[in-house]
Here is the input.
Amino acid sequence: MKTMKFKGIAIALFLMASIAANAQLTGREIVKRAYNLPSGDDQTSQLTMTLINKSGQTRVRKIQQYTKDFGTVEKSIMFFMSPADVKNTSFMNWSYDDENKEDDQWIYLPALKKVKRISSDSKSDYFMGSDFTYDDLGDRKLDADVHKLLREETVNGIACYVVESVSKDEDYMYSKTITWIRKDNFVGMKKEFYDEDGELLKTLSIKEVKKISGYWIITHSVMQNVQNNHKTIIKLSNISINTGVPASKFTERMMMRGI
Amino acid sequence: MKKTGVLLILLISMAFSTKAQETVNISGFARTYEGITFNNGDFGIIQQTLNLNFEKIGDRVAFKVNPMIYMYNSDSLDFRLREIYVDMYFSNIDIRVGKQQVVWGKADGVFITDVVSPLNLTEFLLPDFDEIRTGVIAAKFDYYVGNSTFEAIWIPQFTPTERPAQGSIWYIQPDFPAPPTFDWSKSEINPSLENSEVFFKYSFLGSNIDFDLMGGYTWDDNPAMHVERFIDPTTQPPSIAGLNITPEHHRLYLTGGSFSTEIKGVILRGEVAYYDGKYFQTEDPLATDALVQKNYLNYVVGLDFSIGDVKLSGQFIQKYIMDYEQGMTEDETNNMATFLARYDALRETLHLELFSYIGLTDGDALIRPKITYDFEDSFSILLGSNIFVGDEKGQFGQYGDNSMIYMKIKYNF
Here is the structure.
């Protein structure tokens, strides 16, 4: 079984197979274990994202997504199912193990009827108006940040490592993030994001984790922007793992054809 | 009109019948679109549109029907089946047969190798790009090997570019040195095997770069105007007493390609086409029918990048006529640029955009600012302006009187 860096929206960032915690791990080693979770060779799921503003008004986005690990490259493809104005849009990402190699990304807009290569240099952009940036949804490169173990803490009766991560890029949108990672299995519990002024910007809470086909998968999470009181709920459903998603799924042909 | 009305009722009934919705995916939009010209305050555009998509996608077959109904002013209906086709899927081959729109190339807003589907220019370049193309009745074959695609298209029936009709604010009355008469007997191309168009393309999408190579044996979408001059010998010097103009489409060969790659966060795009055997108008009195046949090159280089949260895109486009001769009505080179800036705010509910065509050779431009607000996910209101400036002989400047402000309200379903 290969280690899969899920570039889709499974928030794999916080998951880890059960590994006995070692005596004295560094911040980097803890985050590395959380990043290098085993999550199968391929995954299929349906994602529902609910955006809720401070007045309580909601907007809902539905996406069908597929991910497959090809060894040195992990490919994912998303098909937008709703709302109506983005229906049949698709997005494909190829992410490389090579830390020096940027992702390749394409978008298919049905109105334009063609697949366009887009820059992967916009990871700080918010995804479809949600509280998640592309970076929040994917896996950052381990050494894009300096990780420091701050303390150990018990949250809801569960022992956690508390790790601070500071970007090596001074212009990065977060001055730092703080992540609570379970000591017993390295599953993430929550994460705080601080803005460029060092003020708390967002809090990610993991509400539900399920074991599917032997892998821990987050199925319900909430990102709360505490500065403007906006939040985004992500729920995963119809999850299947290691079903043999064909390589041909991750091609221009499928982007244009749709689900 | 009566038949169109019946057809409309049938389509709308189909769209909203419960049984149809169970089996066929139905989507589309309703839109109202009004534009007022700055020059005289006239409503240059009053248009209501219903676009319907009936689609069913299976594992092995699929179909799509896309009727679109435009109502101009109060009761003038224009019904179009923009696409109606069936798909057949095999393991490495897809076949699409029927009326379809085909989009090729990497350029935005200009048509270099993107020549399979002709254009509907009845409203100049203003319609959205998915509405400006005309569907062609064709059979398209795609063969897939890894990340490569071999595509062949056969079009048995030629479809020309649609031009604005007389009376339209987009119709430009040509300047003739003498009264013209038109002979339309050669303006049609009969559908036959001999008159078919064929196109081929190889495309690759992969890590680092996407590219394609294409070729086509086609008809020039724009007819050549064969001009016969009648000289009045009684005047001194002899003058042109009249013109007989015969529009005629001619065969055109073209070959080209395009590419797209990312360099440090910047998307670099390029596209080129070499056209063989195009007829150009000339004022050379010795030229037969006032035409001369030349080859030309058309290419574009473009960049897409971001500064902060603003998405920017720029393109340089050049058309170069080879073996140029004095007297030709077109310049030897024609340079153009496009510019796009886009900013999304309020959680992608407010969209600010500025798009411009800039005629570098003619010194004119079309500037298109617009602001769109999504009241809800499926409901948007757009305020925009089309501003034509510059030399009145340029392709944009000639529409100086048509500069306008407009509004579109759209509901997607």
User: Anything to note?
Assistant: The two ends of chain B are 27 Å apart (CA to CA).
